Request: fold
Amino acid sequence: MNQIKVFSPATVANVSCGYDAMGFALETLGDDMIFTKTNSKDVVISKIEGAILPYEANKNVAGVVALLMLKDSKANFGLDIQIFKNFKPGSGLGSSAASASGTAFAVNQLLGNKYSNLELTLFAMQGEVAACGSAIADNVAAAIYGGFILVKNYEPLDIVSIPTPTNLVATIIHPQIEIKTEDARKVVPTQIDLKTAITQWSNVGGLISGLHSNDFDLIGRSLVDLVAEPNRKKLIPHFDDVKQSAIAAGALGAGISGSGPSIFALSKNLKTAQKVETAMDAVYKNSGIDYSTYVSHISKTGTRIQ
Amino acid sequence: MNQIKVFSPATVANVSCGYDAMGFALETLGDDMIFTKTNSKDVVISKIEGAILPYEANKNVAGVVALLMLKDSKANFGLDIQIFKNFKPGSGLGSSAASASGTAFAVNQLLGNKYSNLELTLFAMQGEVAACGSAIADNVAAAIYGGFILVKNYEPLDIVSIPTPTNLVATIIHPQIEIKTEDARKVVPTQIDLKTAITQWSNVGGLISGLHSNDFDLIGRSLVDLVAEPNRKKLIPHFDDVKQSAIAAGALGAGISGSGPSIFALSKNLKTAQKVETAMDAVYKNSGIDYSTYVSHISKTGTRIQ
Reply:
């Protein structure tokens, strides 16, 4: 195999109660990337469409992951990488994670499936370090494993795949305002009441149980975040309106995607998810803020060959 | 039906990571209780064996629950209650919860199954108020629902049954020292680091996922408590030795049962659980402290007719 075209999904991290611990991958929203083997042993980013990102390989998330994997595997080839971003960086939908995990997946294919998903996640996390300074796993693990994932532990990294109910559909609205991950982190308290923490882990337990047992009602009752959302939502115009409208339109629940500004909702079928999209759209259409909306099933496979 | 004999199980609350949110019921350790309809409309506790507890109905956990249910249901009968305690109050194994939930279950049978398990849990929680001043749900819900339960929410009460792997077996050691629930609560911090909380809810997620998927290894990796155990274990002599010995003998994990002093371990089969019992016994046998050990499967039914 000399060339591979891959799709790397957008991802929703946190999933309300699962702050810094859970994530899921979208089926139809994500980046396209083309990787071509070269004889030079270098990594060259030859095309980037859809976003302004560095072309220097050691400053580009995809380039960093590719260089690391070629070195680790002592590969006898180099790479030409073309990146087609289909959603914007800074959306809270794991843009850097899509580049990092798409690269990890593609390079592994070109290496003949040398690495496990856990190892690919560890490589992709180094792309997250390049993008935001932290080796966070939730978005990249969701992109690589697909479906819902739980980051059970960091040292050693322990990723648990959680079954995804087939009919579960996400609706996303991305208000095109800038929230830096750093700023979004600053507003989250470093200490919390034990009582709040207990409620949060009861909801994590409920969400994971609901996903395992296809209990949509339980999933909905568990999509509650007492830790990040009460603080972060102030950074997102009309958050409460969007959430309430989504739930009124039939969504099981809604919350902030990653560190925002995107807002996600989960619904029990496509038709409801589309109604939720209409409801979200109605809140934003006269807001004077640019925005995009998306409806997508949950991706069961994550990163995949196109 | 004029008389009913019931078994009400001992229960393990918290289950390490699931502090104040999870619990499970034991199959073979628990109280026996006999309820006989009377014409007097009073509740009389006519026998208590195995523990020193009040005979006045309005001061006895079983009496309190029975009085409440007879009043709520406008029953045209009274009750004679005989209580046979097979494990000691103050053990951390839900002694008051066994009396409360056994009563709720038995009275409901005599009323022709008028109430749901959720309603029975709410009645039994009033027994917990009588016993310890708080309407805690974890032990009583585990006793009434059986298996593993998650207290997803208190207001309104929301109990989630979690599937129990068939082969899972608990080993318990009860060192006969006194730890008051109140004292055990005092040593647990009221505020915790967000980082600690995230680890705790990742483990709750892992434990619930492991129970759903019969993943014993994941169950073991998730039996970690960073919140109560590091503080409470100081109240339990030889805790670290017991835990380490249990794990060395093959247990998936171990922790404090409820607010202690009992220590529980979970194993993937009966043979291992018996080895774990031997290992726990070896730690305590020359300690000069009286103790009991128990090996039991997880009760899938909870409170039951004998």
Notes: The two ends of chain B are 14 Å apart (CA to CA).
